[in-house]
Amino acid sequence: MTTPVIRINPAIDAKAARDAYKRDGFVQIADIFEPHVAEHMARMIETLTYDLAFQGEEDKPVLLTQEEIRQQGQQMGQRIRNLMDRTGDNYGFLYQSYPLITAYLTGRDAGHPIHRLTEWLNAEFTAFGAFITDEPRVAKADGQLTRYRPGDFIGLHDDVGPEDSHRLTAYTLGFTRRWRSDWGGQLLFHDNKGDVSRGFVPRFNTLTLFKVPQLHSVAVVAPYAKVHRHSVVGWLRDHTP
Ligand SMILES: O=C(O)CCC(=O)C(=O)O
Ligand SMILES: [Fe+2]
Protein backbone atom coordinates (compact mmCIF):
# COMPACT_ATOMS: atom_id res chain seq x y z
CA MET A 1 0.00 0.00 0.00
CA THR A 2 1.32 3.45 -0.83
CA THR A 3 1.58 6.05 1.90
CA PRO A 4 -0.94 8.83 1.30
CA VAL A 5 0.33 12.38 0.99
CA ILE A 6 -0.63 14.43 4.03
CA ARG A 7 -2.73 17.43 3.06
CA ILE A 8 -5.59 19.43 4.51
CA ASN A 9 -9.04 18.32 3.41
CA PRO A 10 -9.85 20.56 0.39
CA ALA A 11 -13.49 20.71 1.59
CA ILE A 12 -12.53 22.77 4.69
CA ASP A 13 -14.09 26.23 4.83
CA ALA A 14 -10.97 28.12 5.90
CA LYS A 15 -12.67 31.53 5.75
CA ALA A 16 -15.38 30.46 8.25
CA ALA A 17 -12.69 29.05 10.57
CA ARG A 18 -10.75 32.30 10.34
CA ASP A 19 -13.87 34.31 11.29
CA ALA A 20 -14.51 32.02 14.28
CA TYR A 21 -10.90 32.32 15.48
CA LYS A 22 -11.02 36.10 15.18
CA ARG A 23 -14.25 36.18 17.24
CA ASP A 24 -13.37 33.62 19.93
CA GLY A 25 -9.57 33.18 20.00
CA PHE A 26 -10.45 29.54 19.51
CA VAL A 27 -11.65 27.35 16.69
CA GLN A 28 -12.29 23.67 16.17
CA ILE A 29 -12.32 22.23 12.65
CA ALA A 30 -13.84 18.79 12.10
CA ASP A 31 -12.66 16.45 9.31
CA ILE A 32 -9.40 18.32 8.92
CA PHE A 33 -8.09 15.47 6.75
CA GLU A 34 -9.80 13.29 4.18
CA PRO A 35 -10.66 9.90 5.71
CA HIS A 36 -7.80 7.92 4.11
CA VAL A 37 -5.24 10.51 5.29
CA ALA A 38 -6.69 10.58 8.83
CA GLU A 39 -6.58 6.77 8.95
CA HIS A 40 -2.93 6.72 7.85
CA MET A 41 -1.98 9.30 10.48
CA ALA A 42 -3.95 7.58 13.24
CA ARG A 43 -2.19 4.26 12.56
CA MET A 44 1.23 5.87 12.90
CA ILE A 45 0.22 7.76 16.03
CA GLU A 46 -1.25 4.64 17.63
CA THR A 47 1.70 2.34 16.94
CA LEU A 48 4.93 4.32 17.50
CA THR A 49 6.92 3.86 20.72
CA TYR A 50 6.58 6.90 22.97
CA ASP A 51 8.71 8.41 25.75
CA LEU A 52 7.36 9.44 29.15
CA ALA A 53 6.96 13.20 29.68
CA PHE A 54 6.47 14.80 33.07
CA GLN A 55 7.27 17.96 35.00
CA GLY A 56 10.57 17.17 36.67
CA GLU A 57 12.14 17.84 40.02
CA GLU A 58 13.54 21.30 39.15
CA ASP A 59 10.29 22.33 37.44
CA LYS A 60 11.88 21.43 34.13
CA PRO A 61 10.18 19.04 31.71
CA VAL A 62 11.64 15.51 31.71
CA LEU A 63 11.45 13.07 28.80
CA LEU A 64 12.50 9.46 29.44
CA THR A 65 12.76 6.72 26.85
CA GLN A 66 11.27 3.31 27.65
CA GLU A 67 14.85 2.07 28.18
CA GLU A 68 15.58 4.88 30.64
CA ILE A 69 12.36 4.08 32.53
CA ARG A 70 13.47 0.44 32.86
CA GLN A 71 16.86 1.54 34.15
CA GLN A 72 15.20 3.69 36.83
CA GLY A 73 13.45 0.62 38.25
CA GLN A 74 11.75 1.24 41.59
CA GLN A 75 12.81 4.89 41.66
CA MET A 76 10.24 5.64 38.97
CA GLY A 77 7.27 5.14 41.31
CA GLN A 78 8.73 7.59 43.81
CA ARG A 79 9.41 10.16 41.09
CA ILE A 80 5.78 9.96 39.96
CA ARG A 81 4.53 10.29 43.57
CA ASN A 82 6.75 13.37 44.00
CA LEU A 83 5.35 14.76 40.75
CA MET A 84 1.79 14.42 42.11
CA ASP A 85 2.84 16.24 45.27
CA ARG A 86 4.37 19.10 43.29
CA THR A 87 1.37 19.25 40.95
CA GLY A 88 -0.99 19.65 43.93
CA ASP A 89 1.04 22.62 45.17
CA ASN A 90 1.93 24.13 41.84
CA TYR A 91 1.99 22.74 38.29
CA GLY A 92 2.67 19.39 36.69
CA PHE A 93 1.88 17.06 33.82
CA LEU A 94 2.22 13.41 32.96
CA TYR A 95 1.68 11.74 29.58
CA GLN A 96 3.52 9.84 26.89
CA SER A 97 5.20 11.88 24.17
CA TYR A 98 6.92 11.37 20.84
CA PRO A 99 9.00 14.51 20.17
CA LEU A 100 8.61 15.07 16.43
CA ILE A 101 11.33 17.64 15.78
CA THR A 102 13.97 15.87 17.89
CA ALA A 103 13.09 12.55 16.26
CA TYR A 104 13.43 14.13 12.82
CA LEU A 105 16.79 15.73 13.60
CA THR A 106 18.34 12.75 15.40
CA GLY A 107 17.31 10.05 12.94
CA ARG A 108 15.00 8.26 15.38
CA ASP A 109 12.79 5.74 13.53
CA ALA A 110 14.73 6.54 10.34
CA GLY A 111 12.66 6.08 7.18
CA HIS A 112 9.37 6.02 9.11
CA PRO A 113 6.53 7.99 7.43
CA ILE A 114 5.99 9.94 10.68
CA HIS A 115 8.72 12.28 9.44
CA ARG A 116 6.47 13.32 6.54
CA LEU A 117 4.08 14.65 9.22
CA THR A 118 6.87 16.77 10.74
CA GLU A 119 7.66 18.20 7.29
CA TRP A 120 3.97 18.87 6.61
CA LEU A 121 3.60 20.69 9.95
CA ASN A 122 6.30 23.10 8.79
CA ALA A 123 4.93 23.54 5.30
CA GLU A 124 1.21 23.47 4.48
CA PHE A 125 0.08 23.45 8.11
CA THR A 126 2.14 26.50 9.08
CA ALA A 127 0.72 28.46 6.14
CA PHE A 128 -2.82 27.30 6.98
CA GLY A 129 -2.32 28.30 10.64
CA ALA A 130 -1.04 31.74 9.63
CA PHE A 131 -4.17 32.22 7.51
CA ILE A 132 -6.70 31.01 10.12
CA THR A 133 -5.11 33.04 12.92
CA ASP A 134 -4.50 36.03 10.62
CA GLU A 135 -1.03 36.15 12.11
CA PRO A 136 1.67 36.79 9.50
CA ARG A 137 4.41 36.27 12.11
CA VAL A 138 3.64 32.52 12.13
CA ALA A 139 6.72 30.96 10.54
CA LYS A 140 6.97 27.40 11.89
CA ALA A 141 5.41 24.72 14.04
CA ASP A 142 6.96 22.58 16.74
CA GLY A 143 5.16 19.38 17.66
CA GLN A 144 4.88 16.19 19.63
CA LEU A 145 2.59 13.20 19.49
CA THR A 146 0.86 12.72 22.84
CA ARG A 147 -0.73 9.65 24.34
CA TYR A 148 -2.73 9.95 27.57
CA ARG A 149 -3.29 6.74 29.49
CA PRO A 150 -5.56 6.46 32.55
CA GLY A 151 -4.15 8.83 35.21
CA ASP A 152 -2.39 11.14 32.72
CA PHE A 153 -3.10 14.89 32.76
CA ILE A 154 -1.81 18.45 32.36
CA GLY A 155 -2.45 20.86 35.25
CA LEU A 156 -3.63 24.43 34.90
CA HIS A 157 -1.33 26.50 32.66
CA ASP A 158 -1.49 29.22 30.00
CA ASP A 159 1.09 27.98 27.45
CA VAL A 160 3.35 30.99 28.01
CA GLY A 161 6.63 29.08 27.88
CA PRO A 162 10.15 30.24 28.53
CA GLU A 163 10.73 33.82 27.45
CA ASP A 164 12.32 32.73 24.19
CA SER A 165 9.61 30.23 23.20
CA HIS A 166 7.69 32.57 20.84
CA ARG A 167 4.39 30.71 20.99
CA LEU A 168 1.66 32.55 19.09
CA THR A 169 -1.06 29.91 18.90
CA ALA A 170 -1.54 26.44 20.33
CA TYR A 171 -2.76 23.63 18.09
CA THR A 172 -3.97 20.10 18.62
CA LEU A 173 -4.84 17.54 15.97
CA GLY A 174 -7.08 15.01 17.71
CA PHE A 175 -6.77 11.33 16.81
CA THR A 176 -8.86 9.65 19.50
CA ARG A 177 -11.25 7.31 17.72
CA ARG A 178 -13.85 6.90 20.44
CA TRP A 179 -14.33 8.54 23.79
CA ARG A 180 -17.00 8.74 26.44
CA SER A 181 -17.57 12.06 28.16
CA ASP A 182 -17.02 10.57 31.65
CA TRP A 183 -13.54 9.27 30.72
CA GLY A 184 -11.92 12.66 31.52
CA GLY A 185 -9.22 13.86 29.14
CA GLN A 186 -11.14 16.99 28.12
CA LEU A 187 -9.28 20.12 27.08
CA LEU A 188 -10.69 22.50 29.70
CA PHE A 189 -10.68 26.30 29.62
CA HIS A 190 -10.88 27.97 33.04
CA ASP A 191 -12.16 31.44 33.91
CA ASN A 192 -10.82 33.71 36.65
CA LYS A 193 -13.47 32.48 39.12
CA GLY A 194 -12.13 28.94 38.83
CA ASP A 195 -15.10 27.70 36.82
CA VAL A 196 -14.61 25.70 33.65
CA SER A 197 -15.93 27.89 30.87
CA ARG A 198 -15.66 25.27 28.12
CA GLY A 199 -14.55 21.67 27.89
CA PHE A 200 -13.79 19.67 24.74
CA VAL A 201 -13.92 15.92 24.57
CA PRO A 202 -11.09 14.17 22.67
CA ARG A 203 -12.13 13.79 19.05
CA PHE A 204 -10.93 12.11 15.87
CA ASN A 205 -9.60 13.99 12.84
CA THR A 206 -10.23 17.39 14.45
CA LEU A 207 -8.00 20.46 14.55
CA THR A 208 -8.19 22.84 17.51
CA LEU A 209 -6.43 26.22 17.45
CA PHE A 210 -6.39 28.58 20.42
CA LYS A 211 -4.68 31.83 21.16
CA VAL A 212 -1.85 31.98 23.71
CA PRO A 213 -2.19 32.87 26.60
CA GLN A 214 -5.40 31.24 27.91
CA LEU A 215 -5.76 29.26 31.15
CA HIS A 216 -6.41 25.62 30.34
CA SER A 217 -5.71 22.06 31.43
CA VAL A 218 -6.22 18.49 30.26
CA ALA A 219 -8.50 16.68 32.72
CA VAL A 220 -7.09 13.52 34.30
CA VAL A 221 -8.04 10.49 32.23
CA ALA A 222 -10.33 8.23 34.28
CA PRO A 223 -8.88 4.93 35.59
CA TYR A 224 -11.64 3.11 33.68
CA ALA A 225 -11.11 4.78 30.27
CA LYS A 226 -10.96 2.01 27.66
CA VAL A 227 -8.73 3.70 25.11
CA HIS A 228 -5.86 6.17 25.04
CA ARG A 229 -6.22 9.83 24.09
CA HIS A 230 -4.02 10.49 21.06
CA SER A 231 -3.14 13.82 19.44
CA VAL A 232 -0.48 15.85 17.71
CA VAL A 233 0.08 19.03 19.73
CA GLY A 234 2.34 22.04 19.58
CA TRP A 235 2.55 25.74 18.90
CA LEU A 236 2.74 27.95 15.86
CA ARG A 237 5.74 30.19 16.37
CA ASP A 238 7.45 33.17 14.83
CA HIS A 239 10.73 32.83 12.92
CA THR A 240 12.98 33.20 15.99
CA PRO A 241 15.16 30.08 16.45
O1 LIG B 1 -3.84 18.03 24.32
C1 LIG B 1 -4.49 19.05 24.49
O2 LIG B 1 -5.70 19.11 24.26
C2 LIG B 1 -3.82 20.30 25.01
C3 LIG B 1 -2.38 20.10 25.33
C4 LIG B 1 -1.78 21.27 26.05
O3 LIG B 1 -2.43 22.09 26.63
C5 LIG B 1 -0.31 21.44 26.03
O4 LIG B 1 0.40 20.53 25.56
O5 LIG B 1 0.16 22.50 26.50
FE1 LIG C 1 -1.33 23.85 26.88
Automatic annotation (TrEMBL):
Q: Which residues form the Fe2OG dioxygenase domain?
A: 132-238
Gene3D superfamilies to which the protein is assigned, alphabetical: q2cbj1_9rhob like domain (2.60.120.620)
The record's keywords, sorted A to Z, are: Iron, Metal-binding, Oxidoreductase
- Highest taxon in the source lineage: Bacteria
Q: Name one Pfam family in it.
A: 2OG-FeII_Oxy_4
Q: Which PROSITE patterns match?
A: FE2OG_OXY (PS51471)
Family assignment from sequence similarity: Belongs to the iron/ascorbate-dependent oxidoreductase family.
| Protein name as annotated | 2OG-Fe(II) oxygenase family protein
Species of origin reads: Brevundimonas terrae
In the record, what lineage is assigned to the organism producing the protein?
Bacteria, Pseudomonadati, Pseudomonadota, Alphaproteobacteria, Caulobacterales
